[in-house]
Each structure stands twice: as structure tokens, then as C-alpha cells.
Amino acid sequence: MVPNGEASHKGKSSGEFLQIQLPPHHNFSRQVSLETGFAALNAEANRGKNAAFSPRGAKDRRILSRNGKSLGITTGAVAGADGVRKGDFSMFRTKSTLHKQLSMLPIRKESGLDLQNADGSSAGGGGGESGREESINQSVPAGRYFAALRGPELDEVKDSEDILLPTDQIWPFLLRFPINCFGICLGLGSQTILWQSLSTSPAMSFLHIPPYINTAIWFLALVTLVSVSLTYALKTAFFLEAVRREYFHPVRINFFFAPWISCMFLAIGAPPSLAPARPHPAVWCALFAPVFVLELKIYGQWLSGGKRRLCKLANPSSHLSVVGNFVGAVLAARVGWGEAGKFLWAIGIAHYLCVFVTLYQRLPTSQTLPKELHPVYCMFIATPSAASLAWNAIYGEFDAVARTFYFIALFLYTSLIVRINFFRGFKFSVAWWSYTFPMTTASMAAIKYAEEVPTILSKGLALGLALISSAIVSSLFISTLLHGFVWCSLFPNDLAIAISRSKHSSSAANIRIAKDKKSAPAARSRYDNLRRWAKKSLIPTTIDHHSSGHDSDDKRCTI
Amino acid sequence: MVPNGEASHKGKSSGEFLQIQLPPHHNFSRQVSLETGFAALNAEANRGKNAAFSPRGAKDRRILSRNGKSLGITTGAVAGADGVRKGDFSMFRTKSTLHKQLSMLPIRKESGLDLQNADGSSAGGGGGESGREESINQSVPAGRYFAALRGPELDEVKDSEDILLPTDQIWPFLLRFPINCFGICLGLGSQTILWQSLSTSPAMSFLHIPPYINTAIWFLALVTLVSVSLTYALKTAFFLEAVRREYFHPVRINFFFAPWISCMFLAIGAPPSLAPARPHPAVWCALFAPVFVLELKIYGQWLSGGKRRLCKLANPSSHLSVVGNFVGAVLAARVGWGEAGKFLWAIGIAHYLCVFVTLYQRLPTSQTLPKELHPVYCMFIATPSAASLAWNAIYGEFDAVARTFYFIALFLYTSLIVRINFFRGFKFSVAWWSYTFPMTTASMAAIKYAEEVPTILSKGLALGLALISSAIVSSLFISTLLHGFVWCSLFPNDLAIAISRSKHSSSAANIRIAKDKKSAPAARSRYDNLRRWAKKSLIPTTIDHHSSGHDSDDKRCTI
Amino acid sequence: MVPNGEASHKGKSSGEFLQIQLPPHHNFSRQVSLETGFAALNAEANRGKNAAFSPRGAKDRRILSRNGKSLGITTGAVAGADGVRKGDFSMFRTKSTLHKQLSMLPIRKESGLDLQNADGSSAGGGGGESGREESINQSVPAGRYFAALRGPELDEVKDSEDILLPTDQIWPFLLRFPINCFGICLGLGSQTILWQSLSTSPAMSFLHIPPYINTAIWFLALVTLVSVSLTYALKTAFFLEAVRREYFHPVRINFFFAPWISCMFLAIGAPPSLAPARPHPAVWCALFAPVFVLELKIYGQWLSGGKRRLCKLANPSSHLSVVGNFVGAVLAARVGWGEAGKFLWAIGIAHYLCVFVTLYQRLPTSQTLPKELHPVYCMFIATPSAASLAWNAIYGEFDAVARTFYFIALFLYTSLIVRINFFRGFKFSVAWWSYTFPMTTASMAAIKYAEEVPTILSKGLALGLALISSAIVSSLFISTLLHGFVWCSLFPNDLAIAISRSKHSSSAANIRIAKDKKSAPAARSRYDNLRRWAKKSLIPTTIDHHSSGHDSDDKRCTI
Predict the structure, then answer these.
(1) Half-sphere exposure at residue B399, Cβ-oriented, CA atoms within 13 angstroms
(2) DSSP strand E in B161-312: where?
């Protein structure tokens, strides 16, 4: 409630694609005029202090405190700790910009993002400020994400879980901006290369694709990439704790590869009129270095196998952490460093092998993926397609190896297409963008194959795949615009980053309350039922209360 | 008991190989004269009604009802539900040919063979007609097969399990005719190709094998294939439910590939005097289409990973579902569609990789295979041999890839040969035929290798392997004839398809009985001991009672 | 107690490297002057008898009996069974050389080293001689090793475990001489080949390495190999039971490949001045035959998957059981048998695949490896490097396959190097030698690559890797000398071979004792605490008592 309008709309000036808009204004803060950037941030910090003294703000807070994390804790307990309520969003803030006097030790201990130490003891369930702080600063263990979340992207919270932030409010924009947004750049960047191939490939010359389509998409992709990168950079600056939680998230971690892969896509798909035919090797070095560092980190975790061993973490989005090698190999071949490309191809194939076999085995330890198909399964197509393209780029011929990978991708594509319940029953999310680039990669491999084996069938297949991928990217583009600017539902509250660090901490309070009522088990189960009911029924009510109250069109501004 | 003579001896006219003979005649139905085909079927349905009124039949039924599924249920309960007893075999009948008025809904729901839905709720243990029907119509979940069956082929019922059909009778012939019989076609079909190679390969020219051996085996294989196919088609027509249960069986499902692989073997091994050197591509399309559909289904199950994930289902017979790709690739190369062959090779190698690693790891989730060696382990040799042959056929040279796979097969062969307890302690079954074609494939690969590296050692190895495989096929052929026509034990009751859908349903009745006796645990354990004893001791008795009664030479007719 | 000084220092004459020295002298035998060889052995046997009658010896024994295996058993019970105490070391003796009248049956039953039968029933926990004998003769099941031991080399005993031999004494030298010592031969043998490559490779010609360095190292390695082999042969002759326990140890079993791989290293790295350029194929046959037999055994265990299935046994040292194939392939190419080399390469790659994927997945069944890095992880580098070298040797070119494996090795090397806690917190052991040869292999592959791609970077990399590996080998050599001859701590008591066969047997005695005290649970837990404390505190005390007593420089003689 207090600092919940953290939107920064610097994106407004950064292009026609991504319009990040205004902060939500609830009834107790609607008097604040629209401000921008850091000014808004400072203003909100002040607002938070003011709101603590306004009677209406206090009343609102009491209502809200029955939901979300502190649901069920008696109002007195919460009202007595104003610092706790104020910390609701600020606990994800970058620590150095906030209260420096508090608990610098755990931050310093954890700032190295040492994933190996993620199995620490759970915080003792206390309600005090320092306990809460500690519980946030310590990284969430991998098993906790699987225990508390569900869905193929691990982005939905299980019913039995409480989360740290109030679910009835709309959170600050930056907190709701997930790393998955780089998927948009992946989708557009790969389209750039596809249309470059379509316009330049001899196999596709019968289409007479003009080269300016490539140029147009390239600029669109560039603008998107810059916008998303800037926004996420702001998130990193202001909400470092939230970024760290995304980094520890078993699915999201793979999306940290997306920015660099997007850049490589843009470097590969740059229009010939703008870029030299052979970019400088420094481009490759600059773009691949972060990928390499991430790989050393993530593959090392698999290998040394603490809590984040492959057999537990493997999910289709793990392909994202492998495919970067093949994209990097293509770029290496483009800049003329063939041996570096072969190096990347070798890394990629070794780890692709592990990921492929692990995912196909569907070990009993990885039970989190539902059996329904989902766009995330498209990731299966990405890696063999990219491996095929990379081999062709490095060794200069579409030989048996490249064909084998291309055909594997083709079979997996077929295997997914024949399943009818493909896009059924899943609500749109920005992560879907990531699932378009595999299809684009497959169509690029099909074009290469059609160059090698120029038959009607292969050309038709290449054309068909290209059309499918472009159609899907177009429809996603429209969907994104609709969700973003018309329905304002592109960025819902990012519940996945706000799970409590341990189940224990949230239920401790309940037990204490139940104990007070003298008849623990019965009271507790009754209480739990009440809580479930409250969570499900109260939240829409209070949201309605907020949104239907005053300035109801404000809701549109939260994207 | 009543409709238990469902033998159809149309096989009698279909060649000298497969003589399917007469139905068993028990003492209460021996007055019925031998009839054929549909006439017999109709007659039996009538007989069932008549038998219900004959006092001797009723008495027999009371005796029998102490065994099999309903063992232990008081006679009154069974005698009160004549429909249940009559349904004993008819519940595996194709539903549309029987009582159409009953429960069409579950059939329609399940007719798509939707394996994903196989985890439904267990039937409630009731004894009524509709409950039984439902329990049959719903597909048996994969875990149930592992829980109730044992042995490397999952064809033996654990002692603690009851089965739905009476074990003391000889079931209708079609119910006892398993899909494994196509293994005979696999074994003979691969011999066809082997002898074709022996007679035409330059490396083997020193043997001067006449080409007519190939022709003779080819015709034998053709006749066998037609006979088995027709019989199984009849089974599909009359006992669709039994076929569906085989389809859901974790081991048997792989044998559904066998018919098409056999056809491809015959197409590849066709004598040059009869067939053109390059068959029409339509042959390949027609034969590989069903394999491709099955693969999409089965690999998709592995990938999407419901209850039938690879880490649970993997067993040596899973190789059968992979090897089809390589055989198809050889045929594709034969018809001149090299690219299609490469496509199949790529599919095959990707999934072979998964199966190979999974089987070598021996995950703790796949604990069903006993540690003793068994013919089923021969399947390990099949896939690398076929991969080697396919690569040679597609790319035209026995290069490093083909050699690597050939040598892997050779090592696995050695690894199996050095184990002395190879063929020990397992009784002959028709499934053994499937385990001959891997050896044949290995010897074909050895011949190709001997062509490439014509040394004494390689030629001797090829000759030795060819001799071993032919010797084994010959001995199996004789064994099959002996078991089929002399010992009449080729097709025992196929217990694997008659397990109850859930453990619960069969024990519910026992609990009810035990409850009546007021002292549940003690009574139940005493009761269980009695049941075990009855199952073991009573069954031979009643079988003896039947067979030693009248017309004891009828036993020979049940194959 | 009596035959506990089984040291044999025949090594004294076998070179300057391995000086195996004198038996331990405890306070009750410190009056015996230093003797050598079998004389010492006999002397000790006599000494043992004398000590049994000396009052001080008896007192000492009573003190000692409170530690080790019999800790906590009342002195009377032990003192009453002198045979038990006498058997402490003799139970690991080769049975035929000892009391032949006793229990020949189990030896004969087990002498085939039939690992499949290793899951037999546990000995009944009796304290008698025959029960103890049986418990030793039966092989220890694989799970037991994992349950009782810890550390990446499974060489440390968990606190809760008792071991069969007294931990406060220094055991006979041969009992303390582990199979891991062949790692020294691996490290020196691979250095031989490295310096041969450095002196002959055109890519490294700018270094002007004289060939006599190769010769010097080769002789050093040869002497080491002969010494270690002779010592281990003596161990096999006198302590066959201990060797069998090493054979059943999940990590040590892989070291049984080390002697033969060392021999192959020496055959490959023989100085050109001494050996013909192309050795006789019989050399390859003689050296590879044992490896092949071991492989058939071990891979067969993985495949048939009893208790020793791959998913349970896989650990980084499993690479040792795979790398032999590639070294054998290099040797096969050297002797001119290219096809045999391809055969080995195929075996190697198939099983490397399984090991690599299994280790990368880190299945939950293999939880024994700590997450800290350890020299044992260097083994990851060995196999791809060797595969690359072998492919180059067999097929004559460093093509895409060889490069892919070389680059995989390079990435894994990088992945290990960037982890800072690499050599931290682990005390030196002779097993570290095994972890040097992967680096040497990697640098050999780098030299081959530098020959193929002669750039500054590749040559520099090759030189750097060669320097690293030589530096590590040198420092290990010095460490070994220091530990061996100065600090006398090279061969500590080899606790891993002395775990009890089942947890039950050791605690049974305690239960019996506790029962006597009438208040079983409380007494037992108090008793256990006492036992733990005694184990931790008493042992150093008594050791100090021994060593600080008289002739404290005797300690140096135990190596």
C-alpha cells in the first residue's frame, strides 16, 4: 500500500513499442500528481511516511492486512509494527539505497550470489523487522520454488502458500516486470535473421522478399531490446533483491541468457546495408562473454550438484541455457573465428545431450511440469535447429551432422504439432515470446536445408515454417499490445518472486493464534478454511473496492 | 467357463506353418459338435444360456468360482449374478458386437485410446455388472501393470494378485494369442535379409550360397506373416478390449511395431527374382506410416511425461520402438528416398540415445527387470546393428559412424555371450522369437563390415554370427512346432491382460467377508492364506478334473 | 594383535623412489630392534606370543580393546576369546595360507568374485570366531560402502560406524597399501608421453626439448610401476581378503584399471631410442586383455543392474573405467591395428556417454559426493581428452569429432579452474596422483590441436597446460616424498576396507550389553554417547601414549 506506485515511465520516450505507463493510484494516494523517474521514487518514500499518519491510510492498511502474507495475524500485531508494513515492497529494494544502518552483514555475505550456500536454516518465524529482513536477504533454496510454485513456468503460487507481498494490490511496475520480457527481444531478433535469410537465400529467391523488411524488423527489435534492457536495468538498480530472487528461480535463471542471445541475434541479423558483412571479432567477444560466465556458473552447479543439480532443475526452459552456445557459434563463424565457433558447438552439444536425455527421461525428481502441453515445449525445437545452423555455419556444409540435428528438430516439431491441446487452457503471458524463437530457428534451418536439397518439398516446408513462425510472432505482437495497452494485464503481480523463504515462517503465526484459542487442531483447521476462503473471496472484493472506488480508470495505467 | 471355446481355426487353411486348432471341450460342453468361425461364436452364446440352466454346469461353476478372480466370494453372491459369470470372457469382447444397450459412454470416451487419461479413479470394488464393465472399459494405468506383473516380459502374475478370468480353464484361443507372435515374423523376416546378403555379398561369395534359400525363407516368412496378421486381425475384431489391454501393457506396446517392421523386412529381403531392385516409394510410405504414427504417440508420451514417462517404462523391449526407424531408413534407401532415410535415422538416433542411456543407468524407478539375464537383453544388440546398417545404406559407405555403431553392437553381443546364465531358468515363450532378429541384424552388419574390411577375421566373424543366428532361429522354429503341435503349450492363458484394474477391487470383497466374521485381521490373514493355498493347489486339481475327465485328447487341440 | 607387523620392505632394493620401511613398534614390542623383511615378520609372530604372556602387554590389550571394533565389549568377553583378537588382522589374510581347517566352504563359494551374489543375508551379529569369519568372507554389498563411508573417495568412515580393525594401531604396511597407489604410475606414465610429444611435436619444436627428459621420466615411471606392482602383488598374496574388499569398493574398483592403463602409457611413451617405432601387436593384446575382461565385468554389472547399477555407483572415478578404452585405442593405432582401435573407441564412447550423462544429471540416488570440489573432479577432463587423442590416432586427422571432444575437455577444464575452492580443505592422499593424468592428457590433446591449428594462442595454450600438469606432478612428487619419508603419513590406516559388513553386527553386542543393564533405551543412548566420546578422545590418547613413550622416532618407519 504505501510505496506501491513505483512505476517509472521512462520507456515513454523510447519508441512506439513499449509504453510503460503510470503508477496505480489508490484512494489514499490519488492526490499525488503524476511524476516521473527518480522524482516519483523519492516522492513515494515521503508519501509512505505521510500515509503512516493519515487515518484513512491506517484503516486501509488494517483491511489489507487480512490478505497476503500477514493474513490472519491480528491487526494489533501488525498495526504495532509500522516498519513491517512499510517494508512490504521495500524489502525487495536494493539494500544500499535504503536504510543502510540495518543488517549490512547478511547483504555482504550474500552479495556474491553464492548459490551453493542456498540451503541455510529457515528464519525462525518471528514477526519482527530483523527476522523479516534476514528471511528476505537469504536466498530462497531451489526446492522451495518447486514446493511453493506450480505451472510449467513456475509462475503460479499454490493455494496453500502465503506470499510476502499483498496480493490485492497492484505492485510497483518494476517489481512486476519479469526477466521473461527479454523473450520479446528473442522473438523479434530471430525474426530479423529469418527475413534476412528469406531475402538473401537462393532457395527462397522465388519469393522476391525485399530486404527492407529485414531492416524494419531489425529496428523494431533494436528498439524493443533497448527499452526492455533499460527497464530491467532500472529494476536491477532499485529492486536488486527481486532480481536476485529471479536469479534463484529454477525457470527464470535460464532467461538471464536471453538478453545476450537477443544481442547476438541482432548482430547476426543486422541488415547488410547497415553493418559490414563480417563484424569485428570484438562484437563476438563482448556479447558472448556474459553468456560464458553464466554457463560456467550454471553448468558448474549441475556438475557439482548441490541443491541445484540437473535432475532437479531440468525443465524445457533449460534449453535456453544451451542454445546460447549455438547462436554464439553462428556469430563466431560470422566474425570469422571458426575455431571459437567449434569450441562453442562442442560445449553446446555436450550439455544439450545431458539436457535432452534428462528431459526425455522425465525423472521422478522433476515432477513439476504438468503433463499438458504448453508453449514451453517449443523450446525442444530450438536447440537442435540451432545446432544444425551452427554446424552449417562453422563447417560450411549442411552435412550428415547438420541434417541429423535438423531432422531431430523437425520430428520434435511434428510431435508437438500433432498434439491438439497445444495452446489450450493457458492464459497469455509475456513468456510466450520466448517460445516463438524456436519455430523461427527451425524455419531458418529449413531454409538452409532447402538450399542444400532444393526440391519442391523442402522449399515448401521452409516456406510453411517461416509463415507459421511469422504468423505466431505477429499474433503475439498484437496480443502483447492488446494486453499491454487495452486490457492493462500484461504485467500481473509477479507472485513467483514473493514466496516466503520457508513454509514454517508463515504458519508459525497461525499456530500461535490457534494456541491462544485453547483448542489447537480444530481451531486451526477451521482457521485455515477461513483463510483459504478469505484469500479467494476477499481479494477480489478489496481489489474491487479499490478499483471501483475512485479513479477507476487508473487501472489501465498499470499495464 | 461358458463361452470358453472361442477358437477359430481359419488358420488351418492358411499354410503349413500355423495350424490353429480346435476349441477345448470341457465336460459340461462336450456335447457341442465342432463348429467353425462365427457359427461357433453364435453357438457358444446360446450354449452359455443353456448351460446356465443345466445343473451340472451350475455345479461346475460353483467349483470354479473358488478360483480366479471371484475366488472367495461366497457362491451365493456369484450364483446370484449370472451375468457376471457370463461376462468373464465377454468382457474382453469388442463392445459393439455385444450388448449395445450397455455402457456405450465409456467406450466412446476411451475409443480414441487416449493414454493420457489412463490415471482415472479406480472402480469402487463393487460386484455388480456395471461396476465390472466400467472397470474393464477403463484403461489399466501403467503403474498397475508393474505392480501386478513380474518377469522381464511382465507376463507373470504376482502371487498376491487376482485376475479377472478363471485361471483353471483354457481361455478362448484368440484371447491367448498375444501380439508377441509377430516376433515370429520378425525372426523369419530378418533371416530372409541375412540369406539374401549371404548369397549376394562379395565378402561371402566364398560360401556359394544359392539364392533360392532366400526365396524359400521369404515365402515361409510371408505365409507366417499373413497367418499371424489374420489371426490378430480376428482378435482385434472380436476381443478389442483384450487388444487395448495389450496396447496399454508397458512391454507389449513395443510389439505393436513388430508387424510393420516385419513387413519392411520382407520388402527389403524380397528375392531379386520376384521383386524389382528398387521398390516403388509407395511401399515405403505404406509401411512406415503406421510406425510413424505409433512413434508420435509413444515418444510423445515419453516427452510429455504423464504416468508413462520413459524413466518408468524403459525396458529392453523399448528398443523395438526405436529400431523401426533404422529399418525404415534402410527401406527408404532401397526405394531411393535417401533424405527420408536420413530423417528416420535422425529420429532413431535421438531416441536410441535416450533409451540406451536410460537402460544403462538402470534408474531406481525401473526396478521391474530381474537381474538375471534373459533373451530380452538381446534387444540391446538390435538397435546399434540396425543403425550401422542404416547409415551404410543411406550414406553409401561403412565409415566411422557405421563402424562405431557396429562395434558397439559387437561389444554388447560379447557382453551377453560371456554371461553363462544366459538361457537358464526361463521357459520358452513365443516372445523369444523377437530376440532372434537382433542377432540376425548383427550378423548382417558383420557382413557389411566384412565387405569393407575383407580380412579372415572379419569374414569369419560374419560367418560365425550368421551361423549362430540361423541356428537359433532353426531351433526356435522346431521348438515352436513342438510346443504348438505336440505339447500344445505354445499359447498358455495370457494372464497379463487379465489383471484387475486396481488392487482395491478384488480385496474389497474379502474385507467384506472378513468383516462378517467379526474378527477382521486374524480372519483376514487366515483367509488370505487359505486363498493362496486354494489358488495354488486347487487350480491344478480342477484342470486335471477337466482334462482327465472325458475327451482328454482334446487338450492337444488348444495349441 | 599377533601378526600385525606384516611389513615387507623389498621395495628398498627396487629403486630410489619407493622406500617401504619398517613395521610399527608399539610400546610392548619396542625393545625389538629394526629388522627387515620376513625376518621381521617372523620376529613379530614370536613377539606376539611373548607379548601375550607379558603382563604389560595384556594390560595394553585391555586398553586397546575399548576402541576400534570391540570397543565397549567388556574386557572379559574379549580376553576370553584370544582368537578374536588374533584374527583382527588375519581375517584379511589370504585364507589358504592361514588356518586351512576353517571355513573353506565360503571361500570357495566366493572365490569367483561373483558380484551378483553380493546381496546375501547379513551375518547374524554373533561375536564368535565363525560368525566373524563368515562376515569377512562374504563380500560387502555396495550399499554398505555408501552407508558407512563418506568423502569423494569414500575413504573416510562415518562417526557412527565401527570398523573391524583397531584404529589406534598402525596396521601392517600391506594392509595400508591401497590400489590407489597405481595412480602414481598413471601420473608418471602420462608425463612420459607428454614429454615425448613436447620433444617430437612440430608445434612444440620452438621449445627445443631434449629427448632425454622423456627417457628419464620413462625409467622413473617404469621403476615406480614395478615397485607398486610388486607390493600390490604381495598384498594380493598375503591379504587377498583386503584386496577383495577393495574390489567391491565402489570407487576403488575403478582403480583396478590403473595398472593396465599405466602399462599402456609406458608402451606408448617409450623413448624412440629404446623401443621400435611400431611395437608388436602382442604388446597391445597382453596389456588390453585384462582391461577388456574387467570391462565386461563392470559394464555388465551396470547393464544387468543388480545392486551395482550405474545410477548408484556413478562417481567421477568411473571415468577411469572408460578412459582405458581410449588409451587402448591409441596403443592399437600405434601397433598398427587401426580396426581394433576403432572397436575400442566405439566401446569407450558408448559408455562414456552413459557415465557423462549420469554424472551430469547427479541423480538423487548418487548423493554421496559432497558438493565441494575435489581433485577427483579432474577425472572429468580425462575421458574427452583421451577420446580426442584416440580419434586422432585412429583416423589420422584432428577433425570435427576430435575437436569436439578436445573442446569439451577444455571447457570442463575451465569450469574446474574457475572454482576457487579447488584444492581447499582436503588433506593429501596418494589418490591425488590419479587426478594428475587428466591434465596431462588434456595438454597432450592441446599439443595435437596446436599441430593442426598452429596459432600463437593454441601453442600458448598447449605450453601452458603442459607446464601446469608438469608443475602439479612435480609438486605431488615432492609431497609424496615428504609424506612418505619425512612425515611418515603417506599410508594411513586404510579404514575403508575395514568397515563391518552390516551395521547390525556391531550394534548387536551393544544391545546385549545394554540389555544386561536392565534399562535398555536410556542405558543404550548413554552408552552410545560414551562410545562416541571414547572413540574421539581415547584414540589420540592411546596413540600419544604409544608414540610419546619410548623410541618415538620409530613413528617415522611406518611410512
Answers:
(1) 9
(2) none
**Three-state secondary structure string covering A281-314:** HHHHHHHHHHHHHHHHHHHHHHHHCCCCCHHHHC
Question: Is residue C352 within 8 Å of residue C406, measured between CB atoms?
Answer: no
Q: Are strands C156-157 and C149-150 parallel, antiparallel or unpaired?
A: antiparallel
Say if the Cβ atoms of C362 and A401 lie within 8 Å.
no
Query: Among candidates B62, B63, B91, which has minimal Cα distance to B163?
Result: B91
Nearest Cα residue to A345 out of A394, A293, A298, A382: A394
CB B33 within 8 A of CB B553: no
Cβ separation of A361 and B349 shorter than 8 Å?
Answer: no
Find the closest chain C residue to A338 by CA distance.
C453
Provide the sign of the torsion angle of the four alpha carbons C442, C448, C450, C453, taken in this order: negative
CB contact under 8 A, A342 and C419: no
Measured distance CA(B46)–CA(B61) in Å, rounded: 17
In angstroms, the CA B14 to CA B491 distance is 19
Residue B417 forms contact with C (CB below 8 Å): no
Which residues of chain A have a CB within 8 Å of the CB of B306?
371
Per cent of chain B over pLDDT 70 is 57
Could you report the per-residue pLDDT of A308-332, keeping only the tens digit for each? 777 777 888 889 999 999 999 999 9
Chain B interface, best mutation among C116, C304, C309, by max B CB count within 10 A: C304
Q: What is the CA radius of gyration of chain B?
A: 25
The confidence score (pLDDT) of residue A474 equals 93
C-contacting chains (≥3 CB pairs under 8 Å): A, B
Of the candidates A148, A251, A250, A166, the one whose C-alpha atom is nearest the C-alpha of residue A502 is A148
Residue with cell 548482430: A267
In chain B, which among 342-401 make CB contacts under 8 A with chain A?
A: 342-343, 345-347, 349-351, 353-354, 357-358, 363, 365, 395, 401
Residue with cell 527475413: A195
Answering whether pTM is above 0.80, one says no
Choose the closest CB to B371 out of C296, C306, C354.
C306
Cα–Cα distance, A292 to A299 (Å, whole number): 10
Is residue A15 within 8 Å of residue A224, measured between CB atoms? yes
Find all residues with CB under 8 Å of C208, minimum gap 6, and list them: none
Contact criterion met (CB < 8 Å) for B356 and C350: yes
Q: Which residues of chain B, if any, have pLDDT below 50?
A: 1-87, 98-137, 368, 371, 505-559
Assess: ipTM above 0.90.
Answer: no
Nearest to B415 among C299, C346, C365 (CB): C299
Exposure b/e, C253-279, CB count within 10 A at least 16 = b: bbbbbbbbbbbbbbbbbbbeeeeeeeb
Q: Which residue of B has its CA nearest to C350?
A: B408
Separation of alpha carbons A136 and A499, rounded Å: 10
| Contacting partners of chain A (3+ CB pairs under 8 A) | B, C
Rounded Cα distance between B178 and B168, Å, is 19
Share of chain C above pLDDT 70, in %: 57
Task: Please give the full DSSP string across A427-469, using - where no structure is assigned.
Answer: ---GGGGGGTHHHHHHHHHHHHHHHHS--HHHHHHHHHHHHHH
Grid coordinates in use for C285? 593384446
Confidence of residue C369 (pLDDT cuts 50, 70, 90): low
Question: Is the model's pLDDT at C116 over the cut of 50?
Answer: no
Residues of chain A with pLDDT under 50: 1-87, 98-137, 368, 371, 505-559
Looking at residue A37, what is its pLDDT? 35
C363 CB neighbours in chain B (<8 A) are 361, 363
